[in-house]
Design a protein that fits this description.
54 residues, alpha+beta, three-stranded antiparallel beta sheet, 3 strands, 26% helix
């Protein structure tokens, strides 16, 4: 069995069904609750959660 091809086809099928998920790459900042950095490609930018969400 060609495992790399098997998994590539399985991932392609998930993409086609729109069930493939990519999670945000977040960086927590020690001592600053609810303040994070999000990594987008080679950039980082701050994000802040709404306190009402907690």
């Amino acid at each position: 069995m060609n495992y790399p091809r098997f998994f590539e086809e399985a991932i392609d099928q998930l993409h086609a069904e729109r069930r493939y998920r990519v999670f945000a790459d977040l960086e927590r900042i020690v001592g600053k609750f609810s303040c994070n950095l999000i990594r987008l490609k080679a950039r980082r930018r701050p994000i802040r959660q709404n306190r009402a969400d907690h």
